[in-house]
Write a structure and sequence with these properties.
- The structure is a homodimer.
- With about 475 residues, chain A is of the alpha/beta class.
- Chain A has three domains: about 5-90 and about 110-195 and about 295-370, FAD/NAD(P)-binding domain, CATH 3.50.50; about 195-290; about 380-470, no CATH class.
- Chain A is built from 18 helices and 19 strands.
- A seven-stranded mixed beta sheet of chain A has the order 6-5-14-15-16-13-17.
- In chain A, helix 2 (about 25-35) runs parallel beside helix 5, helix 12 runs antiparallel to helix 13 (about 345-375) and helix 16 runs antiparallel to helix 18.
- The relative contact order of chain A is 0.12.
- The interface of A and B includes residues 190 and 195 of A.
- Chains A, B: Belongs to the aromatic-ring hydroxylase family. KMO subfamily.
- Chains A, B: Its EC number is 1.14.13.9.
- Chains A, B: It is a multi-pass membrane protein.
- Chains A, B: Pfam families: FAD_binding_3.
Chain lengths: ~475, ~475
């Protein structure tokens, strides 16, 4: 769709959109608004990462999937980004004894992509800059802004203050959003920030003889119940390993020897791959980082301001959807801009109405997977369920879609995906009630076919219910 | 227990405790700390309500129950307060056709008390002032404070700034606590504020011929599903009626005639009692007020600051426990001060550990009752359950205690009360599974006693389970 022919473009040309935050979602949003013809001003508190030597904080690779790709596609960026990603078709589960078992993410041909956060950010900033109406302002720290007039004051690196008046302010300034602080002063703004007891720590697994130290096209997982490690491949043939562990337990490991002892006990196969010396050193390079889940509502303030990305919904990283949800925010907003002809006073409330339930759903799912990934992935029951779900999906691709597939490989709204999933679960529980109810009465003189259904009969009953609904 | 003989008193004498907020919990806390011998400075942003003519905002009467009374008792205030309260032994349910049905709160002799917020606050402030070591500072607005040094800056009514250094800062400054803002800047502080879709509005029902217009020793309830009205008696023989309704619906009533029409439809029995003219006038006196539920954790910052009352846990008003929970905070803190010999560095983390789960539990329960009070109170199923619970409680007073009784008439920790209640519910659901499981198989050729248990058999089974556990 070519927006240059859009009716509203004549009005948008005179309007200033201030995007606060030049991270992933801010940079992508700049492209979206610029493409529509708005005057876009991006304000980022840090220096331009394309010039900076070291980028501090945040994980260095991310899993890009369908929603994120669709959002990139709309501004012509999908191919560029995908070409620099590494496909991961399956999880690769590392058991304690060193055996590795793959669990596919979806059907053949479906995969998620390991992409480099810094590179993706750089590409998006450069893409935003190709629009003549876009100006990127780095080292601009937000001091204050007015919810009534849209007037904003920034502190520049040179100590000077800069004022700007915006028609729309788009807060993409992350989990600790400065823009959001004004929302907290309004009545009836719902907000929550929840830290999980786990912290994370990143380690690098170098190449061996110029090649990946493990199979590259997998997201490697070492599930160990209360904690876990994962590893994602990078273009330079390293892996970034991320150890997730309760802060309490991080506190118990304070010396290099304790690190080795800990890895020997739980991740013995990784010691030769990371290298004992590197492990002892890198483990203490940074303290364990906290993870927060942020939810809020509404996302907008009158017709002046809207929150997107982590500023609106920071999620814990266990569903690989943080960036994808943030990118989909831009896409959904864009769709509503089309529907409501760029009228901010209609678009903003509609965006809140549509998007809040979906973002809340993915925040909850990520929290759910926080438990599932490190524990259930271990169990045979989990593997069996994945197997059943995938098989049923193969037989009835429209009726039974595994949750992971809905979230990762479709644009089914997150909250719809959860609803369908709960429905499937309810059906499963219905089955349980039948089984348990009847077993309790096995002392009665019933015929065998009544006292408990065979597994085959259960499957038939369950399939019948699925089909009836489908 | 006489604290004047307490070992630690010699140290507490030199320590300054700054209580921020001179509302109910702040004033009570001042008594507690003063009684221990601390130098207590209370800072309240408003004027002294004992001198002010009109007290704005907040509901004017509250339900005092066991926890609150125990907390008052400890500082010798129970009798004074109780003597000015009006006992309410039962709910009085007003149906649409005007019939009234009482539902007792507990056993004979158990009641909650309708108390006047302003009077209670005044009494507590005066009680705090009887301690020579206590200073009350009104019209002092907190500007800033240091989490490291405990230094605080206040803005006085005369425009001057005042500095004070405290050994301990106790934040009792309500749901929108200024003290809590510093907590939000710390890492790993969990926080949520949730507004419910309902607002509330207060109306006064005057005496008729010098007497209460309705039976005084009841909490009157008009449950109407999506909304409801309640009325509590006051010492001056008025009732304060509070209408709870979704904000959307408040917006639909904009003229005096619409008010009458609305009351005619839903609360016809109250129109002659409130008076049509008063109703038309008072309904629009103030806009509908919002209600917020606040949860956070931890409650303390190092050994310097602790949050109590609404600052730590604002709850929606539907369990009548907001003030009681806040008062119990003071009591629990006091108990831990005894246990840990007034060592703030030990007392504060212990207070967080002990109190957070209980306050979160009552916040959740209040939210649960938000639904129950306005809808289920209507239904026969609810009445039946109350009846069963109360009967079982009479037979087995230690094993089966109705949730409402545990919350209102005991000091069983809130989270323990919820646990016991969930257990009872689980037992009930077990019963349901049995019933439903067997009914599904009624097509099979079973004997009648197998296909569905009689009500009597259910009751026996359920009682057996209860007794086994007890």
């Amino acid at each position: 769709m070519d927006y240059s022919t859009n009716d509203s473009k004549s009005t948008s040309k005179n309007k200033v959109v201030a995007v606060v935050g030049g991270g992933l979602v801010g940079a992508l949003n700049a492209c979206y608004f610029a493409k529509r013809g708005f005057q876009v001003e991006v304000f980022e508190s840090r220096e331009d990462i394309r010039e900076a030597k070291i980028v501090k904080g945040r994980s260095i690779n991310l899993a890009l999937s369908h929603r994120g790709r669709q959002a990139l596609k709309q501004v012509g960026m999908e191919d560029t980004i995908v070409s620099k990603g590494i496909p991961m078709h399956s999880r690769m589960i590392h058991s304690l004894n060193g055996t590795q078992s793959p669990i596919p993410y979806g059907k053949k041909g479906q995969y998620i992509l390991s992409v480099d956060r810094a590179n993706l950010n750089k590409e998006l900033l450069s893409a935003a800059e190709t629009y003549s109406t876009t100006k990127l302002n780095f080292a601009h720290k937000l001091l204050n802004w007015s919810t009534e007039t849209g007037a904003m004051t920034f502190l520049r690196a040179d100590g000077a203050k800069e004022e700007i008046q915006a028609d729309l302010i788009v807060g993409c300034d992350g989990a600790f959003s400065a823009i959001r602080k004004q929302f907290l002063r309004q009545s009836r703004f719902n907000f929550s920030q929840t830290y999980i007891p786990h912290g994370y720590l990143e380690l690098t697994m170098p190449p061996i003889n110029g090649e990946f130290a493990m199979k590259p096209n997998y997201l490697h997982i070492w599930p160990r119940n209360t904690f876990m490690m994962i590893a994602l491949p990078n273009l330079d043939k390293t892996f970034t390993c991320t150890l997730f562990m309760p802060f309490d337990e991080f506190e118990n490991v304070t010396t290099g020897d304790q690190v080795i002892e800990f890895f020997q006990k739980y991740f013995p196969d990784t010691i030769p791959l990371i290298g004992a010396d590197a492990l002892k050193r890198d483990y203490f390079r940074l303290p364990a980082q906290a993870m927060v889940s942020v939810k809020c509502s509404p996302y907008h303030l009158s017709d002046k301001c809207v929150l997107m990305g982590d500023a609106a919904h920071a999620v814990v990283p266990f569903y690989g959807q943080g960036m994808n949800a943030g990118f989909e925010d831009c896409l959904v907003f864009n769709e509503i801009m089309d529907q409501l002809n760029e009228d901010f006073s209609a678009v903003l409330p509609e965006y809140t109405r549509v998007r809040v339930p979906d973002d809340h759903a993915i925040a909850d799912l990520a929290m759910y997977n926080y438990v599932e990934m490190r524990s259930h992935v271990n169990s045979k029951w989990f593997l069996f369920r994945k197997y059943v779900d995938n098989t049923l999906h193969m037989i009835m691709p429209r009726t039974v879609i595994p949750l992971y597939t809905m979230v990762t490989f479709t644009r089914i709204r997150y909250h719809e995906a959860v609803k369908r999933w709960h429905w499937q679960d309810k059906v499963r529980k219905g089955e349980l009630i039948l089984t348990r109810g009847t077993q309790r009465f096995s002392s009665c003189n019933q015929k065998r076919r009544c006292s408990s259904l065979s597994d085959k009969e259960m499957l038939i009953w369950w399939l019948a219910m699925m089909i009836c609904r489908g």
